[in-house]
Amino acid sequence: MDDLYLDNIDEFVNDQNKIVTYKWLSLTLGVHVNLAKQMLYHYLDQKRKEGSARLHATYLVSGKFVENGTTSHKVSVVREDQLEDAKSKMSLTVSVHVYSVQKAVLKDSGPLYSADYDAVKENLRNCSRYSAIRCADAVPRSSAEVQQACETTQAPPPETEQIKANHSNLASKPTSKQPKGIMGMFANKNVSKNQDSSKEIKLEQKEVTPVVETSKTKPAPKTNPVTNFFAKQAASKYFNNPISHTVGRTRYFPLDSKTKRLEHSDSEEEKNESRRKKRRRIKKPEPDSSDDEVIPDSPPQLQEKRDPSPSPEIQVKKEPVAVSHSDVSFHI
Amino acid sequence: MLQFLFLTFETFASYHSTLFVFSSLSHQKMTTLTRQDLNFGQVVADILCEFLEVAIHLILYVREVYPSGIFQKRKKYNVPVQMSCHPELNQYIHDTLHCVKPLIEKNDAEKVVVVIMDKEHHPVERFVFEISQPPLLSISSDTLLSHVEQLLRAVILKISVCDAVLENNPPGCTFTVLVHTREAATRNMEKVQVIKDFPWIVADEQEVHMQEPRLIPLKTMTSDIVKMQLYVEERAQKAS
C-alpha cells in the first residue's frame, strides 16, 4: 500500500498529463490533505532522484510580509523557480508545501484553479472531510433558515447598491489613465472595454454579496450552486489561513469588505501607473498584487465588524482583508 | 470528397472586444429533436462557436504565437481563461467563427483546424477540432448544459497543459484557421458572402497537409449534442 500511491500519481501526471494538486489528490484517493501533500513531495523527490521525467511543481508559501512598515500575513502560490525568491521576501516563513505537480510549465495560475474545480464541486457537501481545518460551529443551515436568509437578502439591496456606487469609482479604471506597454496601443479602443470590465467586476461583486448575506458558515447548496460554490471557496480561504485559526477572527470577516479592499488596492496601483511614463514596448504582465492573499495582523477594530453590509465610513477607516476571487494566488 | 477553405484576409476592421459570458440557455425539458429543428441547431452552433473562440485565444496564448502582454484573464465556464485584448485580432477571430457558424448549424463542418505556421508559412502545428453532431438529438435532462460546460472546461484545461507534449515553436509564428467541410457546403459559401469583405478561399495543399506529422491526441468529448475530438498534428522538426 505504501508505494502504490506513487504509481497512481505517476499515472495521473505522466500518462494523463493532469495537473495534480494536493486537494485533488486528497479527494481522489480519499486521504487527508496533509498526507496528500507528503505524497506529492515524495513523488517529486523520487522522480528527481531518478532523473527521469521533467516535472514542474508549484508551492504554497505563507508567512509574514513587511510592506511600508505594516506586517501582514501573505499566502501565495509560486512556481518552483520563484520559491526561494518568495521565501527570501518574507520576514518569517510559516509554511511551505507542494501545491501541485504537473508536466507542463504553467504560464499563469488559471489552470490550477480549473484543475480541481470539478472535484471540489462534487464534494461540496463534505469538502472539509479531508481538510486540516475544523470549526465545530460550522454546520449547514436547515432549509427553513436558508429560506429566511433568502428573504432578508431581498431587503437590503439599496444599501448594497450604495456601497457599490461608492466603490465603483475605485473599481472602474479611469479612462484618462495611460495603460503601460502594449495595452497602451489599444488605448483608444479601450474605453468601452474598460466599461465592460468594470461591469464584470460589479457583476462579480453582485454575485458575491448576496451570498454573504445568506450565510457566513458553510452554506447548504441551494438553487444557485454556482454562486454558492463561489462563496464556499471564499469562505474556505479564511480557514486555510493558519493565523486566523482562532474562531472569533475567522467568522467575522464579511466577504464584501474583502472585495472592496481588492478594488482599493487596484486603484492605488492605477494611480501609480498613470504617473509613470507611457511606454510603447511590449511588457510582460506585472505580478498582480491582487493575486496575493494579504491579511494584515489584527487591528482590534476588525472584531467589531459583524454586520454583513457595513456603512461606507467604516469601510474607509478600517484596514480590511484583501482577497482575490480565485482560490489560489500566483506569482508570475 | 472533401473541400477545403482557407482564410487569407489580411486587413482588419476595428473592434471592441466582447465580454464573454456563458449564456444560460433555456432549461425547457426537450425530448427528441431532429436536425431539422433549426433553433436547436443554432443553439449548438452558438455553444460551439463560443467555445472555439475561447479555444483559439487560449491556443494563441499557450503556444506563444502572440506576446502574453496582450492577453487578459477572463472568466468562461466558471474558470479563468486568457483572451486577447487586441481589437483587430479579436475581430478577425470573431469574423472567422461567424462564417463558420452557419456550417456548424447545418452540420456541414467536419473539422475546424487552427494552423500555426512559421516565418516561411510552413505549418508547424495543427490543432484539429473534429466535430460531429448526432442526427437525432435527444435532450432529456436539465443538467445537460452544466454537463456540456464541464466537458468544455476539461478541453480548455487540456489545451492549457498541451505544452508538455509539444515541442516549442520557432519565433515569429502566425496562425490561420481552416475549415474542412462535407460535400457541397462550399458552393453555398461562395454564393453568399456571410460577412462583407471577408472572403474565404480554397486552401493551399501546403497549408493543409503536413509531411509525416506526429499525432498527439489531446481530448475527446462526447455529449448528447456534440462529439468533439481535439488532437494536434506536429511537424517533426520545427526549427527551420
Name its key features.
heterodimer; A: 332 residues; alpha+beta; 5-stranded antiparallel β-sheet; 5 strands; 49% helix; globular; B: 240 residues; 7-stranded antiparallel β-sheet; two-stranded antiparallel ribbon; 30% helix; disordered N terminus
Plain-language structure description:
- The complex is a heterodimer of chains A (332) and B (240).
- Chain A is 49% helix and 12% strand.
- Chain A is of the alpha+beta class and 332 residues long.
- In chain A, strand 2 (56-67) and strand 3 (70-79) form a beta hairpin.
- In chain A, 31% of the residues are buried.
- In chain B, the strands form three sheets. In chain B, strands 9-1-8-5-6-11-10 form a seven-stranded antiparallel β-sheet. Chain B has a two-stranded antiparallel sheet with strand order 2-7. In chain B, strands 3-4 form a two-stranded antiparallel sheet.
- Helix content of chain B is 30%, strand content 29%.
- The interface between A and B is large, with 37 and 35 residues.
Instruction: Provide the structure class of chain A.
Output: alpha+beta
User: What would the principal axes of the Cα set say about the shape of chain B?
Assistant: globular
Strand adjacency order, main sheet of chain B: 9-1-8-5-6-11-10
Task: Compute the number of strand runs of chain B.
Answer: 11
Straight-line N-to-C gap of chain A: 38 Å
Main beta-sheet strand count, sense and barrel state of chain B: 7 strands, antiparallel
- Unreliable spans of chain B are 1-31
Helical residues, percent of chain A: 40-55%
Spatially, the strands of the biggest sheet of chain A line up as 1-4-2-3-5
Which radius of gyration of chain A do the C-alpha atoms yield?
A: 21 Å
Q: Based on helices, strands and strand pairing, what is the structural class of chain B?
A: alpha+beta
